[in-house]
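Record type: monomer structure entry
Structure origin: computed from sequence
Chain ID: A
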Amino acid sequence: MLTKKKKIFIILSMVVLLVVTGYLNIALSSSTSDSLTDSTTTSANFFTSCREDKLSTRNLQIEYLNSIINSSTDSSQITEANAKKMEISNRIEYETTLEGLIMASGFEDVIVTESDSSISVMVKSNGLTSAEVAKILAIIVDETGVEATNVRVIPV
């Protein structure tokens, strides 16, 4: 049976891999676009890919937690696993709400990822003006209470 530290390490590793995948996807898509059509296609593929990666990672985490719940006899492990599942569920709802609010303010596509200390917002754009960044920051700060210095806005 895996210890709690190993389980937490595995879950955190999955989250880190998701973030690295997203970053590499952004870096590679911005350096390889040759025309506006290619850029639009790449951007659409990025958002689709990133959403699928996020969903699959979260599904793996939930599946892993379900296996702990179903196989463990330790009530503290079961309680901790249920708490982690609830945290993942709340994070999904939280990020989806933020994405909807930002898209409702006029942006075509958005992906929000939240960690314990920061929020990253990837926005489909050919470049953001300072007014657009301010609009996004205002939404995030108003809805979450997170300081603007802990929010990263990334045009894709």
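Annotation 1: The chain has a mean pLDDT of 84.
Annotation 2: The helical segments are 4-32, 36-71, 75-104, 130-144.
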